[in-house]
Amino acid sequence: MSDKSFIDKAKDTVGDIIDKAKDTVGDVTEKASDTMDNLGKFQKQSKLKAGYIERDEFKNSNFQKGFFCYNCIYWIDMSGGKCMIVDDKGPDLFGKVSDVIAQHGCCSLYSPNFDEINKQKVVMVD
Question: Are residues 102 and 68 in the same domain?
Fold first, then answer.
């Protein structure tokens, strides 16, 4: 094989590799763009659609035990309580409107936050 044909084959191979890389980068960029578009379109569910209930009888409960928003992986303790997937506005299943996701509330989308549930409290006495 002559040096010239070897160089031509190497150029073709490098050209093929560059073309494949461009295609791959293009595919990744397109998929990332589609993902971002879908995230932008995501809307939280209403309290009614999520089956959210909030009962005052549970206001003074131990929130570390039981099926409460406080123990859910989606609940965020800020501004009185928010949820990543349920809108805090609107009525719950009982018609109660509180404009928060209460720590003593719960819905059908509940997913336990085992770190919170299994957290141990240490009481030190002098």
Answer: yes
